[in-house]
Design a protein that fits this description.
The protein is an alpha/beta fold. It has 15 helices and 9 strands. The strands form 2 sheets. The chain has a 7-stranded mixed sheet with strand order 3-2-4-1-5-6-7, sandwiched between helices. Strands 8-9 form a two-stranded antiparallel ribbon. Pfam families: MMR_HSR1.
């Protein structure tokens, strides 16, 4: 046995949440239908507890005659030619002096201008607003549209059929079958049964019952009537009186509509809504790697390494040749890094890098959309396309603003540089000494001063050659150390750049996809509450 379920207010609140979540994300007609229902519910709840019952049917079904019989007056004129009833008529039961049920405001909202106040109202029907709708099969389009409009607005729908056309596929397919969830607010009347004998009436009723059961309308009462003779009218009045007396027909109709709208929206929910489908660590690393390649991280890391080599060689090389390093521009300085407000001078991503980035973005989108219905996959695609438009600029600014690590000269390089200056000074002393000796030789004074020797080698020569050779050897010994330090700094820069790219991937790619997936789960949870 089905439980009572949530109240109408709770269902509408859940449906409103689902519509708000879907707004701007889902481009499906069911969202518009649900939005219209919420507007209808807000207006209908403000118009009191009168019960609006509509008689609908085809041309010749006798619904206008039935309407007059229930109203006790010739309110709607039956016709013999198509079209007959062109506009809706209304009969109102209740005390006009009190306006207890706000029937006039209700009819204004329904846009039904022709109104009749029942002169001798039945107390059991107090609060009933009975409508005679135009024929649903009218040759006039405006009449058919009016039927469709009012069928969506009334509280209780009485479908009047006749023995000749009770199985008409147009009626069942277009009107009755779609109301499978509205059995509690639907009545079916088989009118004009006085034209048949008893066996034929029983056969028609049995066949009609079968058709309704097959359409999911097993709970809908089927009443045989014959308006001219009054056959079945007391039973129909009693059924209407029961609906009116309960004072909840409007609530029942809105509840059925809310459940129907939610069930339609549920077609856009994955069976396993709520399951986390975020990308795993390997997928995130793959995406980050592809974005890093497209952002030029390898080029920046290579520039950092070349710049560190250049600086290290300049600090540890021969002092007299250091000026030559200034002839070549700093590889890192040419990239215009350090200010994320301006663009870098990195080259544009090549075809291979762009293809890798596109493939990684597509895989991230497909992973996020796995198991989702088409409407939500379309939303993920739109989200991904929006991301792809702004991603290159966002990556470029992230690379430009990344701290690449400390740009200071290592102590050992400073020490090596100091030693190089000392060796250069030693070589200079030797050179100057030799020049002095050469000058003395020209003046024939070379024997005046004794020449110190070390192992038979003149000390000035030893100072000059030793300083130069030691400087060259020190420079050669420092080269591998400089290269190792440059590679280490490049790895630090690459690690920091990759971390910034990973942040961009989270913020610009994964977070929007996860948000869309979370919205799907919120949407489905709200739809489930509204449909329960």
């Amino acid at each position: 046995m089905r439980g009572r379920g949530p109240s109408l207010a709770d269902r509408l609140a859940a449906l409103r949440e689902a519509v708000e979540v879907a707004d701007g994300r889902l481009e499906v007609p069911e969202v518009g239908t649900a939005r219209s229902l919420l507007a209808k519910a807000g207006a209908r709840e403000a118009l009191g507890d009168a019960t609006v019952v509509a008689l609908a049917g085809a041309t010749g079904s006798g619904k206008s005659t039935l309407f007059n019989a229930l109203s006790g007056a010739e309110v709607s004129t039956p016709g013999v030619r198509r079209p007959t009833t062109g506009v809706a008529h209304a009969s109102v039961w209740g005390d006009p002096s009190t306006g207890a049920h706000g029937a006039d405001r209700l009819l204004d909202w329904l846009e039904v201008p022709r109104r009749h106040r029942v002169a001798d109202p039945d107390p059991a029907l107090d609060g009933l607003v009975l409508l005679d709708l135009p024929d649903h099969d009218s040759v006039r389009l405006e009449n058919r549209l009016e039927v469709d409009r009012l069928v969506q607005l009334v509280d209780v729908l009485v479908w009047v059929l006749d023995p000749q056309k009770y199985a008409d596929d147009a009626v069942h397919t277009r009107y009755l079958a779609p109301l499978a969830g509205h059995a509690g607010v639907l009545l079916v009347v088989l009118n004009q049964v006085d034209r048949l004998d008893e066996a034929a009436v029983a056969a028609c009723l049995a066949d009609l019952r079968r058709l309704l059961d097959e359409e999911g309308l097993a709970g809908v009462p089927v009443l045989p009537t014959a308006a001219p003779s009054g056959l079945g009218l007391p039973q129909l009045r009693a059924e209407l009186g029961r609906r009116v007396g309960a004072r909840k027909a409007a609530t029942d109709r809105l509840t059925a509509d809310a459940r129907g709208a939610a069930s339609a929206l549920a077609a856009h929910c994955a069976p396993d809504a709520g399951r986390d489908r975020g990308p795993d660590r390997a997928a995130r690393e793959e995406l980050t790697g592809a974005l890093a390649d497209a952002a030029g991280v390898p080029a920046v890391a290579a520039a950092v390494e070349r710049s560190a080599r250049r600086s290290g060689v300049a600090h540890t090389g021969w002092p007299v040749l250091r000026w030559t390093s200034k002839l070549r521009a700093d590889p890192l300085g040419r990239l215009n890094l350090g200010d994320e407000r301006s663009r870098t001078s990195l080259p544009q991503a090549g075809a291979v890098q762009r293809a890798g980035m596109d493939a990684a973005l597509r895989r991230a989108r497909d992973e996020a959309g796995r198991g989702l219905p088409p409407a939500w996959r379309d939303e993920l695609r739109r989200t991904s396309e929006d991301t792809e438009e702004r991603l290159p600029d966002r990556l470029d600014r992230a690379v430009a603003g990344t701290d690449l690590g400390p740009d200071r000269t290592p102590l050992w390089q400073r020490a090596a540089g100091g030693l190089q200056w000392l060796l250069a000074l030693t070589a200079l002393v030797g050179a100057l000494w030799l020049l002095a000796l050469a000058g003395l030789g020209l003046l024939q004074l070379d024997d005046v001063l004794p020449l110190p020797r070390v192992q038979g080698i003149p000390l000035p020569t030893l100072l000059l050659a030793g300083g130069l050779l030691a400087g060259l050897l020190l420079a050669l010994l420092c080269r591998p150390l400089v290269a190792a330090g440059a590679r280490r700094r490049a790895r630090t820069a690459r690690r920091r750049l990759t971390a910034r790219v990973a942040e961009v991937a989270d913020e610009e790619v994964l977070a929007p996809l996860a948000e869309a997936r979370a919205d799907h789960d919120r949407f489905c949870a709200a739809v489930g509450r509204a449909a329960s």
